[in-house]
Specification:
The complex is a heterotrimer of chains A (321), B (873) and C (289).
Chain A lengths: L1 H9 L26 H25 L3 H25 L18 H23 L8 H33 L4 H4 L5 H20 L6 H23 L3 H7 L1 H23 L4 H31 L1 H17 L1
Helix pairs in contact in A: 2-3, 2-5, 2-7, 2-11, 3-4, 3-7, 4-5, 5-7, 7-8, 7-11, 8-9, 8-10, 8-11, 9-11, 10-11
Chain B lengths: L4 E5 L3 H4 L4 H9 L3 E6 L4 H5 L2 E4 L5 H14 L5 H7 L23 E2 L4 E2 L16 H9 L29 H9 L4 H8 L3 H13 L7 E5 L1 H4 L4 H14 L10 E3 L8 H4 L6 E2 L3 E2 L9 H9 L10 H13 L23 H9 L5 E5 L3 H4 L3 H8 L4 E6 L4 H8 L1 H5 L10 E6 L8 E4 L4 E5 L12 H16 L8 H4 L7 E2 L4 E2 L1 H9 L1 E2 L18 E2 L34 E2 L27 E4 L4 E4 L77 E2 L21 E6 L15 H4 L6 E4 L1 H7 L6 E5 L4 E8 L6 E3 L2 E3 L1 E5 L21 E2 L11 E7 L6 H13 L14 H4 L1
Parallel strand pairs in B: 1-2, 1-6, 2-3, 6-7, 10-11, 11-12, 23-29, 24-26
Antiparallel strand pairs in B: 4-5, 8-9, 13-14, 14-19, 15-16, 17-18, 20-21, 22-30, 23-31, 25-26, 25-31, 27-28
Helix pairs in contact in B: 4-8, 4-9, 4-11, 8-9, 15-17
Chain C lengths: L13 H4 L9 E6 L8 H10 L26 E10 L8 E10 L8 H5 L5 E3 L5 E3 L10 H4 L6 E2 L12 E2 L5 H4 L6 H5 L5 E5 H17 L6 E3 L12 E5 L19 H27 L1
Parallel strand pairs in C: 1-10
Antiparallel strand pairs in C: 1-8, 2-3, 4-5, 6-7, 9-10
Classes of the chains: A mainly alpha (321), B alpha/beta (873), C alpha+beta (289).
Bound molecules: ligand MGD (2 copies), iron/sulfur cluster (5 copies) and molybdenum atom.
Chain lengths: 321, 873, 289
C-alpha cells in the first residue's frame, strides 16, 4: 500500500502533490482487480474450450474424427484448467460452491458460472466418449458415441456464450479501459476464442482434416486483429491504456502471432509442421491478446486520469448544455 | 459556543482538544468568527476564518499591538474598565517602566536578577511589595501558582481617578507602556504584516463590549516560554479592557492537558502547593501557623482569601483528625516544609549531582516527555532506586538498557546503578474516581473493567504503602514518625484486593462536620475552630447533601444551556467565574443578549442562569464599613472576589517575579535582537548554568549563525505526549507512523532537504534525526526585513518501547524556565537543520561538540542575561 | 438457491426494490467536510468497533494521511489536501494555504455495482437500504472490487491468520449497531458532527440547508456530492459537502454504476456469440462446397 504511495509521490519529490493535478496524490480512484494470473489464464482457457468445442462439434458432424477427438480432449483440458483457475483465484477456494447459491443476470460471473456448469458436463461427456476404446466393452461404451455427439453439440451450443461472456465480465467493471470497451471486447474475445480453437485443430489433426480449422483460424485471427485494433485506436483516452508499454507489448506480440498463425494456416496446407506451428502461434497469440487486454485494464485502473478525465468531460459538457 | 469571536493563540485546539473544539465549530455555525494565531498552519487554522502566522515567542509584542490599537482608538469597554478593573488606581510615583529603563522595571537588582516590588505598588502602599530577596525566594518556589495571587494588602484606601486622566493611573501607564507596540513594530518583531494585526484587533474589539463577547483560548503554546505567565497576563489585560471577563461567550480558556491535569493542581502534585492552592509552608518564612496563615490572607485584605484560617484548619483536621488540636496549631508542625526550588528540573539536576537517591515516577515519562532528555536519563541513571508505575514499560523504565546514551556510551547497562521497580498501574477505565477538566468540572468515572493481573490503582498503591509503612513504624517513639502515625488512614476497603473506597476519599475532600458527620454544602461552612474537616476547600460542595454531585449526568437536552446538572464545577458549581461582571455596577445585565447573572430587586438577591459568583444577598450598592476585612470588605460592585481590591488587575503590583506589566522579551534562544529594548530576554528567568545545560548563542552573543533557525515543538492529534499511550497502540501508531520534522519549501531548497528523506536537527545539547515533511503550512516569515525560518517537531517519539520509535524532540531542549511557575520554555529554541541522518554512537557526541565549539558555547560563560543599558550600569 | 430479481435500474428506495415489504426509512451519512478537523477519530472508532486489523505502519508523506485510502482494513478514511491559495490581506505574490480534510466511506449506492455483480449473493441490500458483505458467504471472487466506481471495497490480504483474509471487506454502516438503535461508531466518535447519520431524506434536507448557508456566507466552492438521485449510481447513501472538485479528494466526479450498461453489453456479447457460431458454420460449410 504505502510503497505505491511513495512511488506515486516520488514524482513530486520535495513538495506535496500540486493542486493542479486534480487527483488525490496521483492515487487511483478505483481499485484495480485483485485477480491473480489465474484470471488471465482463465480468460484464455475459457476461450480455448469454447473454440475447440465448436470445432469438435463441426468435426463430429462432418466426420473428421481426429480433429474431433483432439478438439474434444482439448476442450475438456481447457475447461478443467479454466475451472481450476477460477477456483484457485478465489480468496476462499473452499467456498466455490457459494457461486451456485444465486442465479444473477446482473453478475456476469454468476452467469459465467452457470454457463460453465452447464457446459462442463457436456464437454466432459463429449470428451469421455473419445476414450471408449480404452474402456471394456459394454452397454455404456456402446451408448457413448451417441451420447458424445449429443453432448458435443450441446457443448458447442453453449460454447459461443462461454467464449464471449468473459468479455462482459471484464466490461462490467469500473475499470475504464474495459468498461469503455464494452462494445468491442466481445468481438476481441470471440475472435481470440476461435483462433485458439483453430490453433488446437491445426495442432491436433492430420492435414486432411484441418480445412475448417484453417478457415476458422483466418476468420478468428482477422476478427481478433480487427477488434483489437479498435481498442488501440478508437476508444479515445482509453486507447492510451491499450497503447501503453506493457499492454502494447502483449498486443504487438498478439498481432504478430495471430497474423503469422493465420498465414501459416493458409500456407501450411502441405506441411504438418507449418500447420502445427501456425496452430501454436494462434494459441500463443490468443494468450497475448488476453494478457494485453488485462494489462490495459490494470493501467487504466492505476492512473486516475483514465477514470477522472472522461467523467469530468462528461460533467463539463453537461453543464455547458 | 456563545462567543461572537474566538481567538485561539498558543493553542492547537482542534488537534489537542478535538472534543472541546466541537463548541468552537458550534459557535462558528452560529456565526462566530474564529481566528488562529500560531507559528504554523495546523488543523485548527484549517477551520479558522483567519490564520495569522507568527514568529514563535513573540506573542506579547503581537498582543501589545492589539492593546495599543484598542487604547489609541478608545475601543475599550470604558464603563466596565472603570468599574471593574484597577485602571483608575494610582501607582506609586517611584514606579519606572521598561520604556524608560531599556526593558527593565524599577527595582531591579542585577546581581540576583530579581525585583524589589515596592516601587510597583499603588500610591501610598509602597511598603506592601516584596523586596528583591523575597521575590527571589518566590521565584524558587514558583509562588505565582500559590493561592492564585497574594494581592496587595490594601483595602478601601486606594487612590483612584475614575476619569482615568491621572498620569500615574494604571490606564495611563498602560497606554504609555504599549505606545511603541505599533503595527509597524509588530511587523518587525513578529513577522505579522501590519494589516493582519489590524484585522485581528478590529475583529476582537468589534466582537466585544456590551452586546458581544470574545473568547480567548490558549494552552501550552503560551505557557511553555520563559515569559509564559506574562503571555497570559497580556491576554488578560485585553480581555479586561474589552469587558470580556465573567461574561458568557467571553473569558479566557486555559485549555488543560492530561485528563485531570486541572485536578492535579487543585489537589496538587506540585512541590509548592497544598490542596486548594494553599501554599506549601516554607521552612524560613512560615515557621509558625500564624506566619503561614498570615501569608495566605495577607493581613486583613479584602476578598475570599480571608477564609484562609478555616480552609487551612479544616485541611489539617482532615489529615490528622484528633491529633490536630487548637493547642498544637492543628498539627501544623507535621506539615513538611520546602526550602527553595524543588521543581522537577532542579530535582533532575540534583540526581545527576547525586543529591537525590530515590524517585517515584507515576504517570509520567520524563525520559521522553521532559525537556533536556539527556539530563532526565542521566539523572535517573544515577539513583539508588526508581519506582515506575505505568501502563506500559516506558522509556523511563528502560533508559538504562536502550536509551540513546547507551549507544553513545554515556550509560553502560552493566554499570548503571539504578534499581528500577516497574509496577503495573490500573488505567482510568479500571478504577473509579473523578477527573477535573479544563473548566474546573469534576466528573465521576465508574470502573468499567477489573484491572488485569497485578495492575492496581494509585489509590490502592498509596493506601497500602502508607498502611505498610505505618505498620513498620508502629510503636515508634521517634518524633519524626508522628506525622505518619497520626494520619487518619482509615478508608474503607472492598473487593479481592482491598481497594480503598474512592467515594470515601471524595467525601473527605468535600469536608464534613466533625460532630455530626454531615457533609458540608459549601466552603462557607468550613470553620477555623477545628470543628470541620475538609480536604480541599474549593471542592467543598461536591458531596453536598451526601450526594456525589460529580456523578450527575443529566443530558444537556434535558436542561437549560448552562447545564448545571452535568458533573460539578468548583467552586460551588459555578460555571463561569467572576460572573458578577456579567452585570453592570447597578446589577443589571450589560445587555439582554449577554444576560447571565443579575440582581433581582424583588427577591433581594443575585440570580440568573448560573450560580452567582458573589455573596447572593449583597446588593450592588453595598459599601463596606470602614475597617472591614475579608469577604465583608468587598463592595457590591467588586466582581473579582479573590483579588485584594476586588478588581481585575491590568497592572499587577505584587505576586509576579518578572514585572507588573507584560513586556516583549526575545525567547532565551533567538536568532534576533530585541527590537524594543536593550534587554534581550526575560532577565529574571530561571537558568541553571552548568556545563551539561549549554545554551545556544543569542544576541548579543556571537556565532549565532551556527544555529540559524527557530524551532518549536508540540502535539499531533494522533499521539499523546511522550507517546507511551499511543505509540504502543496499532490503531494510533499507523496514523502517524514516524518521527518527522516539518519544513517550508523554501528551507528545504536552502538546505537540500527532500520530502520523506531524513534531516538532522542540532542544538548545543544534542542532535536528532527525523523524516522530512515539506509543507506550505510552514513558511518563512519576514522579520525586520529578513526571512526567518521556523521548523516544527512533534515531541511524541522516543527510543525504546512502542510500535513506532524515533528520536525525541526533547533531546534538543535545554532547561530554562519561566520565573513565576518554573515551566520549561519548550515552545521555542534555535537549531540547525542538515540533510541526512545523524551519526550514531560516539560520533553523535563529536558532531554536537563540534557545533558547540563553533558556536563558542564553552567560552560563553558566564551567561549575559542582563543586557539592558540600565542593568549594566 | 435464491434467485435475485434482476434490478438494472435502481429506485430511490433500494430496500423496497430488493423485495423488503414496508422497509424502515433508508439511512445513510451526510459528511460535512467543511467542519472536519481531521482528527481521525472516525477511522479509529470504526476499527475498534469492527475489529479491523492494522493496515501498515509507514510514513506516506501525503500530508497527514498515512492510511492512504479506503480498503479492506480501512473503512473510514480521512483525506488531507494541502493547497496553495492567495493569502488574504497580504500582498499579491504571497501565498496562503488551505487544508481540506474529508472523511470518506462506502457510498451505499442506490444502484450498487458491487452488489449487482456479486456472484454469491454475499453482498446484500439490508432493509435499511445499506449494502453489506456477508462474511460467511463471500468466497473472495474479487468481482465486486473493480466493479465499485468509487474504489471502496477491497479484499483483505493480511495479516496472516485474520479470519477474514481473502474476503471482500468494507463499511457495513454498522449494521450491528444501527439494528440495535445505535448510531454508527464513526458518527458517534466524530467530535464536530462532520459525520451525521440518519434517515437519508432528513440528511438530504440538512445537506441542502448547509450548502445554502455556506454559499450565502460566501463559500462559493461549497457543493454537494452524491445527493443527486439522477446521477450514475441513482444517488449515494453517503452524501458529502465538499469544498473542491470531487477528484481533488480522490472521488470520481461522475461515477456510474457499471451494470447500468450491462444490457447493452449482453446484447453485444450475443452478437459476438452468434458470430462465433456463424464463423464455425462457415468454416465447415466452406469445406463442403
Ligand atoms: N491528541 C493530543 N491531545 C492532547 C495532548 C496530546 O499529546 N495529544 N496533550 C494534552 C496536553 S498534556 C496538553 S498540555 C494540551 C496542549 O494543548 P496545546 O497547547 O493546544 O498543544 P501544543 O500542540 O503543545 O501547542 C499548541 C500550539 O502552540 C503553537 N506555538 C508554539 N509556540 C508558540 C508561540 O510562541 N506562540 C503561539 N501563539 N503559538 C505557539 C504550536 O505551533 C502549536 O500549534 O493538549 C492535551 N491534548
Ligand atoms: N518539547 C516539549 N516537551 C513537552 C511539551 C511540549 O509541548 N513540548 N509538553 C509538556 C506537557 S504540557 C506535558 S503534560 C508533558 C507530558 O509528559 P509526560 O507526563 O512525561 O508524558 P506522558 O506520556 O503523558 O506520560 C504519562 C504516563 O502515564 C501513564 N499512565 C496513564 N494512565 C495512568 C494511570 O492511571 N496510572 C499510572 N500510574 N500511569 C498512567 C502512561 O502510560 C504514560 O507513560 O510533556 C511536556 N513536555
Ligand atoms: S482524549 Fe479525552 S480529553 Fe482529549 S479530547 Fe478526547 S475526549 Fe477530550
Ligand atoms: S460505494 Fe462501492 S462498495 Fe459501496 S455500495 Fe457503492 S458500489 Fe458498493
Ligand atoms: S468477493 Fe465476495 S462479496 Fe465480492 S463479489 Fe465476490 S463473493 Fe461477492
Ligand atoms: S458505519 Fe461503521 S463500519 Fe461504516 S465506516 Fe462507520 S464505523 Fe465503520
Ligand atoms: S471524526 Fe469527524 S472531525 Fe474527526 S476526522 Fe472523522 S469526520 Fe473529521
Ligand atoms: Mo500538558
Amino acid at each position: 500500500m504505502t510503497d505505491e504511495a511513495r512511488a506515486s509521490d516520488s514524482g513530486a519529490a520535495g513538495e506535496p502533490a500540486p493542486d493542479a493535478s486534480r487527483s488525490y496524490y496521483g492515487r487511483p480512484v478505483i481499485k484495480a482487480p485483485v485477480w491473480k494470473h489465474d484470471i488471465t489464464a482463465y480468460l484464455f482457457t475459457g476461450g480455448l474450450a469454447a473454440g475447440s468445442s465448436l470445432l469438435a462439434a463441426g468435426a463430429d458432424l462432418t466426420g473428421r474424427h481426429e480433429l474431433r477427438r483432439g478438439c474434444r480432449l482439448a476442450s475438456l483440458a481447457a475447461l478443467s484448467a479454466s475451472t481450476w483457475f477460477l477456483i484457485h483465484d478465489l480468496g476462499r477456494p473452499s467456498r466455490f460452491a457459494n457461486m451456485l447459491r444465486v442465479f444473477k443476470p446482473t453478475s456476469p460471473m454468476s452467469m459465467g458460472t452457470w454457463i460453465l456448469a452447464a457446459y462442463g458436463p457436456m464437454a466432459g461427456l463429449a470428451a469421455a466418449s473419445e476414450v471408449t476404446g480404452v474402456l471394456p466393452a459394454g452397454v455404456a461404451s456402446r451408448a457413448l458415441p451417441g451420447v458424445g455427439r449429443a453432448a458435443g453439440v450441446a457443448a458447442a451450443g453453449l460454447a459461443p456464450l462461454l467464449g464471449t461472456y468473459t468479455a462482459v465480465l471484464l466490461a462490467d467493471t469500473a475499470v475504464p479501459a474495459w468498461h469503455d470497451a464494452g462494445r468491442h471486447l466481445p468481438f476481441v474475445f470471440a475472435g481470440s476464442a476461435l483462433a485458439s480453437g483453430a490453433g488446437v485443430g491445426l495442432l491436433a489433426a492430420p492435414l486432411g482434416q484441418v480445412g475448417p480449422a484453417r478457415r476458422m483460424a483466418v476468420a478468428g485471427a482477422a476478427a481478433e486483429l480487427a477488434a483489437t485494433s479498435v481498442l488501440e485506436h478508437r476508444l479515445g483516452l482509453q486507447s492510451e491504456a491499450y497503447r501503453s508499454a506493457a499492454p502494447a507489448r502483449f498486443l504487438r506480440l498478439a498481432r504478430g502471432l495471430a497474423a503469422a498463425g493465420a498465414v501459416a494456416a493458409v500456407t501450411g496446407r502441405r506441411s504438418r509442421v507449418l500447420s502445427a506451428l501456425g496452430g501454436a502461434a494462434l494459441l500463443a497469440g490468443s494468450i497475448c491478446t488476453r494478457c494485453g487486454v488485462y494489462q490495459a485494464g490494470l493501467v487504466s485502473a492505476a492512473d486516475p486520469r483514465f477514470t477522472v478525465l472522461p467523467q469530468r468531460q462528461r460533467l463539463d459538457a453537461g453543464q455547458a448544455r | 459556543m456563545n462567543a461572537d469571536c474566538i481567538i485561539i493563540q498558543g493553542s492547537n485546539m482542534a488537534e489537542a482538544h478535538p472534543v472541546g473544539f466541537q463548541w468552537v465549530v458550534e459557535a462558528k455555525l452560529r456565526g462566530a468568527k474564529v481566528i488562529h494565531i500560531d507559528p504554523r498552519f495546523t488543523r485548527t487554522s484549517a477551520l479558522a476564518d483567519t490564520f495569522v502566522p507568527i514568529r514563535a515567542g513573540t506573542d506579547i509584542a503581537f498582543l501589545g499591538g492589539v492593546i495599543n490599537h484598542v487604547l489609541s482608538n478608545d475601543l475599550d469597554f470604558r464603563e466596565y474598565v472603570v468599574a471593574y478593573t484597577n485602571a483608575a488606581t494610582i501607582v506609586s510615583e517611584r514606579f519606572a517602566d521598561t520604556e524608560d529603563l531599556d526593558g527593565l522595571f524599577s527595582g531591579f537588582d542585577p546581581a540576583s536578577r530579581t525585583y524589589d516590588e515596592s516601587s510597583w505598588q499603588y500610591a501610598g502602599n509602597e511598603d506592601a511589595g516584596g523586596d528583591s530577596e523575597e521575590t527571589g525566594a518566590r521565584r524558587q518556589v514558583a509562588s505565582a501558582l500559590q493561592h492564585e495571587s497574594h494581592g496587595p494588602g490594601i483595602d478601601s484606601e486606594v487612590e483612584r481617578d475614575e476619569t482615568l486622566q491621572h498620569p500615574r493611573c494604571v490606564f495611563q501607564i498602560l497606554k504609555r507602556h504599549f505606545a511603541r507596540y505599533t503595527p509597524e513594530m509588530v511587523e518587525r518583531v513578529c513577522g505579522v504584516p501590519a494589516e493582519q494585526l489590524l484585522e485581528v484587533a478590529k475583529a476582537w474589539a468589534a466582537a466585544s463590549g456590551r452586546e458581544r463577547t470574545t473568547t480567548l483560548v490558549y494552552s501550552v503554546g503560551w505557557t511553555q516560554h520563559s515569559t509564559g505567565v506574562q503571555y497570559i497576563r497580556t491576554g488578560t489585560i485585553l480581555q479586561l479592557l474589552l469587558g470580556n471577563m465573567g461574561r458568557p461567550g467571553g473569558g479566557i480558556l486555559a485549555l488543560r492537558g492530561h485528563a485531570s491535569i486541572q485536578g492535579s493542581t487543585d489537589i496538587p502534585t506540585l512541590f509548592n502547593l497544598l490542596p486548594g492552592y494553599l501554599p506549601m509552608p516554607h521552612v524560613a518564612q512560615h515557621e509558625r501557623f500564624d506566619d503561614w496563615i498570615g501569608a495566605i490572607r495577607h493581613g486583613d485584605q479584602k476578598g475570599f482569601w480571608g477564609g484562609a484560617p478555616a480552609y487551612a484548619t479544616s485541611l489539617l483536621k482532615a489529615w490528622w483528625g484528633d491529633a490536630a488540636t487548637v493547642d498544637n496549631d492543628f498539627a501544623y508542625g507535621y506539615l513538611p516544609r520546602i526550602s527553595g526550588d524543588h521543581g522537577t528540573y532542579r530535582q533532575v539536576l540534583d540526581m545527576i549531582d547525586g543529591r537525590i537517591k530515590g524517585y517515584f515516577l507515576l504517570g509520567q515519562n520524563p525520559a521522553v516527555g521532559s525537556a533536556h532528555g539527556k539530563a532526565q536519563r542521566l539523572g535517573m541513571a544515577n539513583l539508588d532506586w526508581l519506582v515506575v508505575r505505568d501502563l506500559f514499560e516506558i522509556e523511563s523504565a528502560t533508559f538504562w538498557k536502550d536509551g540513546p546514551e547507551v549507544a553513545t556510551g554515556e550509560i553502560v547497562p552493566e554499570e548503571c546503578r539504578t534499581e528500577v521497580f516497574l509496577l503495573p498501574a490500573a488505567s482510568h477505565v479500571e478504577k473509579e474516581g473523578t477527573f477535573t477538566q479544563t473548566q474546573r468540572m469534576l466528573q465521576w468515572r465508574e470502573k468499567a473493567v477489573e484491572p488485569p493481573g497485578d495492575c492496581r490503582s494509585e489509590l490502592w498503591f498509596f493506601f497500602h504503602l502508607g498502611r505498610l509503612v505505618r505498620e513498620r513504624l508502629a510503636g515508634s517513639q521517634d518524633g519524626r514518625d508522628r506525622p505518619l502515625l497520626d494520619l487518619t488512614w482509615d478508608y474503607p476497603v472492598h473487593g479481592r484486593h482491598d481497594e480503598p473506597s474512592a467515594d470515601a476519599v471524595l467525601r473527605e475532600v468535600n469536608g464534613f462536620d466533625l460532630v455530626t458527620g454531615r457533609p458540608l454544602a459549601s466552603s462557607g461552612e468550613l470553620r477555623a475552630d477545628g470543628s470541620t474537616a475538609g480536604g480541599c476547600w474549593i471542592y467543598t460542595g461536591v458531596y453536598a447533601g451526601g450526594v456525589n454531585q460529580a456523578a450527575r449526568r443529566r443530558p444537556g437536552s434535558e436542561q437549560d444551556w448552562v447545564a448545571a446538572e452535568w458533573g460539578w464545577v468548583w467552586p460551588a458549581n459555578r460555571r463561569i467565574l467572576y460572573n458578577r461582571a456579567s452585570a453592570d455596577p447597578e446589577g443589571r445585565p450589560w445587555s439582554e443578549r449577554k444576560a447571565y447573572v443579575w440582581w433581582d430587586d424583588e427577591l433581594g438577591r443575585w440570580t440568573g442562569h448560573d450560580v452567582p459568583d458573589f455573596q447572593v444577598d449583597k446588593p450592588p450598592w453595598y459599601r463596606p464599613p470602614p475597617g472591614a476585612t475579608g469577604a465583608e470588605a468587598l463592595a457590591g460592585d467588586d466582581p473579582f472576589i479573590m483579588q485584594g481590591d476586588g478588581k481585575g488587575w491590568l497592572f499587577v503590583p505584587t505576586g509576579l517575579v518578572d514585572g507588573p506589566l507584560p513586556t516583549h522579551y526575545e525567547p532565551a534562544e533567538s536568532p534576533l535582537p530585541n527590537r524594543l529594548y536593550g534587554q534581550q530576554s526575560n532577565p529574571t528567568r530561571v537558568v541553571y548554568e552548568r556545563a551539561d545545560n549549554p545554551r545556544n548563542p543569542s544576541p548579543p552573543d556571537e556565532h549565532r549563525e551556527v544555529f540559524p533557525f527557530v524551532f518549536t515543538t508540540s502535539r499531533l492529534t494522533e499521539h499523546h505526549t511522550s507517546g507511551a499511550m499511543s505509540r504502543t497502540l496499532g490503531y494510533l501508531a499507523e496514523l502517524q507512523p514516524a518521527m518527522f520534522v516539518e519544513v517550508s519549501p523554501a528551507l528545504a531548497r536552502e538546505r537540500g532537504l527532500e520530502h520523506l528523506g531524513w534531516a538532522t536537527i542540532v542544538t548545543a545539547r544534542s542532535a536528532i534525526e527525523a523524516r522530512v515533511l515539506v509543507t506550505d503550512r510552514l513558511r518563512p516569515l519576514r522579520v525586520d526585513g529578513r526571512p526567518v525560518h521556523q521548523v516544527w517537531l512533534p515531541y511524541h517519539w522516543g527510543v525504546g518501547s512502542g510500535l513506532t520509535t524515533g528520536d525525541s524532540a526533547n533531546d534538543l531542549m535545554g532547561v530554562s524556565l519561566d520565573p513565576n511557575v518554573l515551566i520549561q520554555d519548550s515552545k521555542v529554541g534555535t537549531c540547525d537543520v542538515q540533510p541526512g541522518r545523524r551519526p550514531t554512537g560516539p560520533a553523535l557526541l563529536d558532531l554536537v561538540a563540534g557545533y558547540r565549539t563553533r558556536a563558542g558555547v564553552a567560552s560563553m560563560a558566564p551567561e549575559r542575561i542582563v543586557t539592558a543599558e540600565q542593568g549594566r550600569g | 438457491m435464491i434467485t435475485e430479481r434482476s434490478r438494472l435500474l435502481g429506485s430511490l428506495d433500494p430496500a423496497a426494490g430488493s423485495g423488503y415489504v414496508e422497509p424502515p426509512p433508508r439511512v445513510g451519512f451526510f459528511t460535512d467536510t467543511s467542519i472536519c478537523i481531521g482528527c481521525k477519530a472516525c477511522e479509529v472508532a470504526c476499527k475498534e468497533w469492527n475489529g479491523i486489523p492494522q493496515d501498515g505502519i509507514e510514513l506516506t508523506g501525503m500530508s497527514y494521511d498515512n492510511s492512504v485510502g479506503l480498503g479492506a482494513s480501512t473503512w473510514r478514511h480521512v483525506a488531507f489536501i494541502e493547497q496553495r491559495v492567495a493569502a488574504p490581506g497580504a500582498g499579491g505574490d504571497e501565498t496562503g494555504v488551505r487544508w481540506l480534510m474529508s472523511s470518506d466511506v462506502c457510498k451505499h449506492c442506490t444502484s450498487a455495482a458491487c452488489l449487482d455483480v456479486c456472484p454469491t449473493g454475499s453482498l446484500l441490500r439490508t432493509e435499511l437500504g445499506t449494502v453489506v458483505v456477508q462474511d460467511d458467504i463471500c468466497n473472495g471472487c474479487g468481482y465486486c472490487i473493480p466493479a465499485c466506481p468509487y474504489g471502496v471495497i477491497d479484499q483483505r490480504r493480511s495479516p496472516d491468520g485474520d479470519r477474514n483474509v481473502g474476503l471482500a471487506q468494507k463499511c457495513t454502516l454498522c449494521y450491528d449497531r444501527t439494528g440495535a438503535g445505535l448510531e454508527p461508531a464513526c458518527a458517534k466518535a466524530c467530535p464536530t458532527d462532520s459525520i451525521q447519520f440518519g434517515s437519508l431524506d432528513e440528511l438530504r434536507k440538512r445537506a441542502a440547508g448547509r450548502v445554502g448557508a455556506l454559499r450565502a456566507a460566501g463559500v462559493a466552492d461549497a457543493r454537494l456530492y452524491g445527493e443527486d438521485p439522477a446521477d450514475g449510481v441513482g444517488g449515494a447513501g453517503s452524501l458529502f459537502l465538499l469544498l473542491d472538485d470531487p477528484e481533488v479528494y480522490g472521488l470520481p466526479p461522475d461515477p456510474v454504476c457499471t451494470t447500468r450498461d450491462l444490457p447493452a453489453m449482453w446484447r453485444r456479447a450475443a452478437v459476438a456469440a452468434a458470430t462465433m457460431a456463424a464463423v464455425t458454420a462457415f468454416a465447415f460449410l466452406g469445406s463442403r462446397s
